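This part of the workshop introduces the protein records we will be handling. A record pairs a protein's sequence with a compact description of its fold. Backbone structure tokens are a discrete shorthand for how the chain folds in space. The question running through the whole workshop is how a given chain folds. The record below serves as our worked example for the rest of this section.
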Amino acid sequence: MQNHWVVDLTFDEDESRTTCTAALSGFSAPGARGTGTARRNPGDDADTAIGEELAAARACNNLAQQLIGRAATGIEGHTHTPAQLSF
């Protein structure tokens, strides 16, 4: 059986900040959510695309770190030794 997970990115924006939530879903996907924020320098022109890209990257990175932590915990449960995972 092939697994398929989906990352859904949701944005919340105001005049100086963009926040993104990256939520993982799908059959047998862990219920993990990552968050990321981008702040605009008050002297910069408003460009929502840049804020969304940066906030999304940070949210996905946060989600990835959580998944690595879960994987490390699973490995440690099987091997009974500390796992050293990175990406």
User: Anything to note?
Assistant: Strands lie at 6-13, 17-25, 33-39. The chain has a mean pLDDT of 90. The two ends are 27 Å apart (CA to CA). Residues 23 and 33 are 4 Å apart (CA to CA).
